[in-house]
Amino acid sequence: MDDEQRCPCLSGNPYGECCGPLHAGAAAPTAERLMRSRFTAFTLGLPEYLLLTWHPRTRPDELTLDPTQRWTRLDIVSTRSGGPFDSAGQVAFRAWWRTDDDRGTLEETSEFVREQGRWFYVDGVVA
Q1: Distance between CA 37 and CA 3 in Å, rounded?
Q2: Is 105 helix (H, G, I), strand (E, B) or coil?
Q3: Which pLDDT tens digit goes with each residue over 11-23?
Q4: Is 46 helix (H, G, I), strand (E, B) or coil?
Q5: How many of the other CB atoms lie within 10 Å of CB of 33?
Q6: Around Cβ 47, how many Cβ atoms within 10 Å?
Q7: Chain-centre distance of CA 17, in angstroms?
Q8: Are 30 and 83 in contact (CB under 8 A)?
Q9: Is the dihedral of CA 57, 38, 102, 105 positive or negative?
Q10: What is the residue-wise DSSP string for 83-97?
Q11: Contacts with 70 (C-beta within 8 Å, 6 or more apart), sequence order
């Protein structure tokens, strides 16, 4: 993805100033930023990044993304904690997807932890 293009997470910022640096190895400053970067990883087909940012105690051994599923929109519904000085946080979101034959939304409240200065996705409850 071109660094000048609008970031798929819909932050309003260019990819090169938003999720791009996180995908290149920078640490997310907040749980919400990690959530946004993970959504963008789904849109760009980056399973390695998703696994890297998944907490080791809940991370699957492998992750295969459905190439026919396109993630089109992310709305952050709410956040609780998850700031730069917190050790845990929660982000509720709604994400829209579509395939050639179907479309839908995923609503989830995700749990995050920060360890050694890095945020990790732990798990989520689907609404």
Answers
A1: 14
A2: strand
A3: 999 999 999 999 9
A4: coil
A5: 21
A6: 13
A7: 16
A8: yes
A9: positive
A10: STT-SEEEEEEEEEE
A11: 43, 97, 98, 99
pLDDT tens-digit profile of 48-59? 999 999 999 999
Tokens standing for residue 107: 């609503």
- What is the chain's mean pLDDT, rounded? 97
- The structure tokens listed for 3 are 């660094």
Provide long-range contacts, Cβ within 8 A and 24+ apart, for 65-68: 66/99, 68/99, 68/100
Q: Which two tokens stand for residue 39?
A: 């959504």
The fraction of the chain above a pLDDT of 70, given in percent, is: 100
- Is the separation of the CB atoms in 18 and 8 below 8 Å? no
pLDDT in tens, 57-68: 999 999 999 999
100: which 2 tokens? Answer: 């050639």
What does the block give as tokens for 68?
């026919």
Residue that has been written with the tokens 């791009």 in this structure? 20
